[in-house]
Amino acid sequence: MPRKRIATLSSFEPELFMFWTDSLKSRITLVLPTYKNAVRLRHRLYSCRASMRAEGHPDIDSAERVVLSLEEQPDSRWAVVGDSVGAEFKDAFNKAGIVLPEPPPLEDSEPFDYAPDYTVKEDK
């Protein structure tokens, strides 16, 4: 059985890459005129993510944490929805009182020294 051909990253529109990173930050809904159009866009997004994975794109971690779904709109159109993997549970956590505190501002925190100390101590 022949292997599936994976498209190169250059064959995708830049907007598709932005979709992955922006969907991780907040829910994105792309409304399309027909169900067929929505399915084709979802398939193209999946193909884009597969190419990102195959070529080691720097934003693949973001793309892997986004889930896609199709939703029928009230006006008989369809939407492709991108949202972070855990977003569907966020309301349940908030209702239970589990809310993450805001991180402290960067200017108030002390700088971190990430450089490890590799000096060799000589025995005397």
Indicate the radius of gyration in whole angstroms.
21 Å
Strand order of the largest sheet: 1-3-2
| Secondary structure tally: strands | 3
**H and E order:** HEHHEEH
What structural category arises from helix and sheet content? alpha+beta
Provide the β-strand percentage band.
15-25%
Number of helices: 4
| Mean model confidence by pLDDT | 83
Question: How many angstroms does the end-to-end distance come to?
Answer: 67 Å
Which range best describes the helical content: under 10%, 10-25%, 25-40%, 40-55%, 55-70% or over 70%?
A: 25-40%
Gross geometry: flat
Poorly predicted residue ranges: none
Largest pleated sheet:
3 strands, antiparallel
